[in-house]
Sequence to fold (227 residues):
Amino acid sequence: MPHAHATQRIRIWDLPTRLFHVFLILSVVGLIVTGEVGDDAMRFHFWLGYAVLTLVFFRLAWGLVGGHWSRFVNFVPTPAHLMAYVHSLRNKQPTHFVSHNPLGALSVLVMLFLLLVQVVSGFMSDDEITNTGPWVALVPSQWVVFATEYHGDIGKVLLLVFITLHVGTVLYYKRFKNEDLISPMLHGDKVLPNDTHDSRDTFTSRLFALSILCASAYAVYRLVNMV
Fold:
């Protein structure tokens, strides 16, 4: 085999990105469960909402300064790249990507947006019984009514539908395209050509990520305690 085609294990997903996925999944599952249970579980629902917002803030920042393949600039497609990918799907031409494919990249952005809107709507929600978001006293009553309806009905359904589609797509790729998207997100590596750019994942970069996480948590604390 020519040297140009030699492959090796390349670090694609740095540890902070992988941990982000794990904690986000756990937090979202916790939000769904506590939201359905209600009553005393709502205390944990609020805390999990704050955790999700912290993680979203972290991912937005890490998308700018994180490991190579965690940066938005290296996986979010341009319109031309997106159209080319859609064209390849129509023509059944298999195309492999180092990180997310163009549609997967867009799904990352949509997920972050939906989570951000869901948490912010929760901040302004009021069930008029025992649970009141931290921003209810700061916004007009019309906002509270809309946010409460969105958070409890519209946003929740949108998230559940999107999560179901996301999981279904991952399983589809594994079953029918023989492309495992899960394992690399767990251990961080893919077998790729030697000249593939790897992601920085050092002790120093992980400490840097931790500092960003702490800053994100502090930002959420300030937002929660604006009154």
